[in-house]
Amino acid sequence: MTGQSHRGAVTAKNWIALLAIIVVASAIGIAFMLALNWFPEQGSNVAPMIDTFWDVLVIVSVPIFVAVTTMLLFSVWRWRQKPGEEDLDGPPIHGSTKLEVIWTIIPTIVIAALTTYAAILLVDIQAAPAKGTRVVNVNGVQFAWDFETETPAGPVKSGRLYLPINEPVKFNVRSKDVIHDFWVPAFRLKVDAVPGITTTYNLTPTKLGTFDVVCAELCGLGHAYMRQTVTVLTAERYATVMAGLARASGAKPPAGGAAADVAGEKLFVSGNPATGATACGACHALKAAGTTAATGPNLDEMLTKDDAAAIMEMIVDPNKEIVPGYSKGIMPANYATTLTKAELAALVKYIDQSVHGKG
Ligand code: HEC
Ligand SMILES: [Cu+2]
């Protein structure tokens, strides 16, 4: 057998073998890709639509990938250079109009079909919400989310998002500083929070439980801390929680005392998820609280000369003076709104006593 005849045109037998490889490998590839658990649980009405779209993309693209790779490997093997052929030129190749037409038309049809599907899906998902749909104003600020649910009795603010199950909700997303992105992976949709404009999307939560809210746009050094949760409740529980939140926003500060110290430590270590106050301990080391984070200065070392009033000012207005060696804008500047006066007082008292060894 001469090299030429062995390595000439692709025979019918070759084609059958190649086709068999492509079919089998595609079937395995598709089965594997569909079996993988790509996404978190489905928490909204649009999640199944998005996940189905993903499945369709997988089913269409795996065979294309497999076919291209198979033909590539076959060509490399079949027409590879053999010893002694180093100085030979390959045969002159002429264009093939027929082939070019085929490989232009097929991708055009595939892309056009998928794009049409995606466009129809997008229009479906973005359909204007019915009148009377619950509106939640979502505000992004470096580095926290806060939420304002519109109710007939006025807006109810919260740091953690609460939603009733199986009721449509429309989000008006805004930013107070840089571009953030409001994303609840379990709900699937996300949209940028852009300063100066309001972006929106609407959906219906379909699963009870607590899901992550994350910022999906790198927005500064504290981006990774810009997380919240959304809790989807039954209509009954939701009404109770909203009533509680409405009361809390107008509540009078409770009296100080021993209880306040305990609350101070708790606020330091865990913040107040219900109002969106980020835990101080996530960024600061404080011996008494047992926290060791180093994103912000060590408070035992940094506050030795500061009294309670000074500490209070540093918490509510952290950008007034920046500790040397640290950047402006990492410490959340919203504690004056996410913590009540009573909480702030308890927190300051706790820090003051912890640092100065009193109490
Ligand atoms: C996301 C991280 C982060 C969180 C959360 C955070 N801080 Fe800070 N904090 C910093 C950084 C960074 C600095 C240094 C830059 C500056 O001065 O603003 C700082 C500075 C400070 C200072 C010195 C401020 C000054 O102006 O001298 C104090 C006091 C302080 N933080 C207390 C707190 C307390 C109390 C909390 C919780 C209520 C808290 N921080 C939450 C990151 C954080
Ligand atoms: Cu952000």
Biggest pleated-sheet summary: 5 strands, mixed
- Structural domain count: 3
In one word, what is the shape?
Answer: elongated
How far the N terminus sits from the C terminus, by CA atoms, comes to: 97 Å
Give the rounded overall mean pLDDT.
87
Poorly predicted residue ranges: 1-6, 251-258
Question: Which structural class do you get from the secondary structure elements?
Answer: alpha+beta
Our estimate of the beta-strand percent is: 15-25%
Task: State the CATH class of the largest domain.
Answer: Mainly Beta
- The CATH architecture term of the largest domain is Sandwich
Succession of helices and strands: HHHHEEEEEEEEEEHHEEHHHH
Give the helix tally: 10
Strand order of the largest sheet: 3-2-1-5-8
Q: Which cofactors or ions or other ligands sit in this model?
A: heme C, copper (II) ion
Q: Care to count the β-strands? A: 12
Secondary structure: helix percent: 40-55%
- The CATH topology annotation of the largest domain reads as Immunoglobulin-like
What is the fourth-level CATH superfamily of the largest domain?
A: Cupredoxins -  blue copper proteins
InterPro entries: CcO_II, CcO_II-like_C, Copper_CuA, Cupredoxin, Cyt_c-like_dom, Cyt_c-like_dom_sf, Cyt_c_oxidase_su2, Cyt_c_oxidase_su2_TM_dom
Organism: freshwater metagenome
EC number: 7.1.1.9
Membrane topology: Multi-pass membrane protein
